[in-house]
Amino acid sequence: MLMRTQFQIGLATLWLACMPAEAHSIDIGWIRLTSRVQLDAPETPVSASSGSLLFAETEDTEPRPHKTLLSAHQQLLYLNIYRDPDYRERAYKFGPLPLFERSELQHCIRDGRRFDADNWAGEFSPSEGLLLLGYSVSCADYRHWQDDRFILLDTRTPGTPLLAIGRPTTAEQISLTPLQPMPEGLGEQWLKRLNGDSGARHYSLPSAPTYFMLDQTMPSEDGEQALRKLRRLHTNAFAHKGNAETLEPLRDFLTKHDYRQLGVGIRDVPRLLNDIAFWLAAAGDPEAARPLLEEVLQREPDRIAVQLNLADIDWQLYRLNPNLGLYEARALERYRIYCGLRLTRQLSIPKRVLERLQLSEASEQACRPHWPLLNAVRADDLSLVQRLLDQGVSGHVVGDDGQSALMLALHKPNLEIAQRLVAAGARLTGLYPYRTQLAQALALDLKEDPELARPTRFRFLAAAGAPFEEPELNDQTLLMQYASNPRDLRVLEELLRHRQNVDHRNKDGNNAMQRALTAGNFKAADMLLDAGAQPNQLFDGRLHCKNMDTAYSPIQLLANASQSERSHDDETRRVSLASFAKMLKAGADLTLGQRCGLRGKDVLLESLVRARRDDMMALLDSTDSPRQPTD
């Protein structure tokens, strides 16, 4: 199986590493790990171990430290074990691991695409050579203990480690299921160590003492058995034209078996996968059908009809997600490849293909693939890049991984190639695959230098005209993402160097000032005011009380934030008081805002009384704040 390059896996996972939570914080260690890890394409990192597991791979070698990484492809999870600290020399790979049932996956895969898990696994070693890894996965509608999954690694004997997966059955009990045949008595040894006084039952994940039990009922299944089962399920579905009832067991099968590993080299398997993809697409599930068609083409590249089917599915996904450049790029390239193959065979081109390629008629030049430009950019071949652009290839080319040619150039960075691409039409807007290019450039600069002394990539895009007001998939602008965490003030400072609407609001009516004040990041609020943010705005308080909708002004949000526990320390009180004074000096209108029968200044005073901020009330009494019009 092909390995992803450092670049591909790094950019593909930057979004996972950097996607902001309510209080955004950059995990530099995770970014560095994901920029160099080697994984089987198209898997992405989920959670890694920060510590090391010491064991010998053979009886003739010395024990050496190993790292672990949980990776994912769609609904499948794998454990990778590396023999080096850079996660590049993989020693073992296990999976797919049955950590989740299909009924659970719909709750645990975020946006239908990825597992929302902590970047770093919990680790506990009850004895030498025995390591328990704990993974915290966020699953909607589940209690916290139901989200946790465990992997037990036993490396006390040289060679392939023994594995068991752990699932909580109750808040106090975890069931361990071995994945390989075990020597007699080994399970009892595990339980003795895990449930002992110093064992994993006192481990912090989950936080309460937990008892482990052993479940050895899972039947083993080899590749031949899995293939026989696939053929049986396919035959049944084929007889019923892939209806919902017969498709359901096939869906379940694909959540437990990696189709990439099934029947490699066996002639009938591509046909089986193609049929299943057709049924899934017909059932309205193009996301599930797409990778199966990709695998068919991987095994049989000359199947022209599959090229068209895959292009149609990508076009359908593009119409459903028009803000994601990934699907459009895939569809157009597949249509170009299909068009070229049909021309070579002197066959007609379907009308929809010409329309989507915006062609009145097909020609060899118009149906030439664009992805060779990506290879030229990766190779730093300026002359080839220019030659392809001169031949009519657009500067805006997006690859199968959703990354644009422009971001490929900036990754190095090669600013001369990047400039040529911009001049040839490279777009500065859009999500590639799930983040804006401006955000990706900033993430790359942060990985290189967390202090942002010279954010070369970011400033290049800013100078080229990339819009700062463009939201990401979470409907937040960069300014909003970096306004809430005091540790991100250096990033915020860099953002505010560039022309933008600092008061820009998202669909919920929130903006950077609201994020900063709600999080109690008073220094960020000061920086926004200095950059021109309006002191007189109204934000929805998300509360209807006493026949009025709650609305807060910035100075009222500041007062509300002063009620938090962390605002009681002297430094925070000093900073918040200075910010309060700055807001008043900027012309905060005290008549704005309302909550539960209170209006204007009364809302502010109530918050200050609750926060016991006599200093702010004294400052308020001594200040004659002029009234300003509402923004």
From TrEMBL:
Give the protein's recorded name.
Answer: Uncharacterized protein
Q: Which source organism does the UniProt entry give?
A: Stutzerimonas stutzeri (Pseudomonas stutzeri)
Matching entries from InterPro entries are given as: Ankyrin_rpt (IPR002110), Ankyrin_rpt-contain_sf (IPR036770), TPR-like_helical_dom_sf (IPR011990)
Q: Does the keyword Repeat apply?
A: yes
Keywords from UniProt, A to Z, are: ANK repeat, Repeat, Signal
The stretch of residues making up the signal peptide is 1-23
**Entry keyword Signal:** yes
